Amino acid sequence: MAVGDGSRQLMYSHRRDVSKSAARHDDDRRSVREFSLSAIDFILLGAGPGVSDLDVAEDPPWNGKVFATVINEMNPNLDWCEVIDRLDDVQMLVTRRQSLITLVDALRTGLRDKPFPINKLYTKWRCREAQLSLISSMIENPDVFCIADYPHRAVPTNMLKNTPDESDRLLAPWCCVELTELLLAMAGEQNVQTAAIRLLHGALEKWPDVVLLALFQVPVCWD
Q1: For the whole prediction, is pTM greater than 0.85?
Q2: What is the pLDDT of residues 147-176, one digit of tens each?
Q3: Is the torsion defined by CA of 88, 90, 91, 92 positive or negative?
Q4: Full residue range of the structural domain in which residue 153 is found
């Protein structure tokens, strides 16, 4: 059985498990919304190879596009920005490349023609560990999701004596002031401090001029 077919079958199986409850509330939009979100949690956090537990060496990956297509068929009016809010969870640690691919495929397919709400990546999450794991994975895999492809405050690299290679996709995220600002904030929080500082140090070693210039663009907080 193809991976995509398996994802679709499992989703429809989960739908049947709760169909009686959903049928009793056909006229209740909230129940449909809650059903769709529970189905999303079932995949992202539930049994089987969820996004945070996926090991491609042992488990076939979820097909994120198929998953989102099925969810949209169940509830065409689902607000996928709410789905992104569900990532703010201690269990939602994106630590593998395939996990990020699955997640990004699902979100992009679910959002359809709507722009990706990039600001949600930079606002303060309740679970900073989940937020940092997602950001770290995006930094390491810009071919899967590059934050520089979305609206951002650009580091003015044209001011540098040695202009960096703009085609370097690994550098691209560090040309976003929002990324440096976020990591600086995390560097002052005990539970994510070490990991945030490690990311900043790694970038400083590779692109010191760009990162230092980004630091100068971050607004100073005087509290």
Answers
A1: no
A2: 999 999 999 999 898 888 878 999 999 999
A3: positive
A4: 147-223
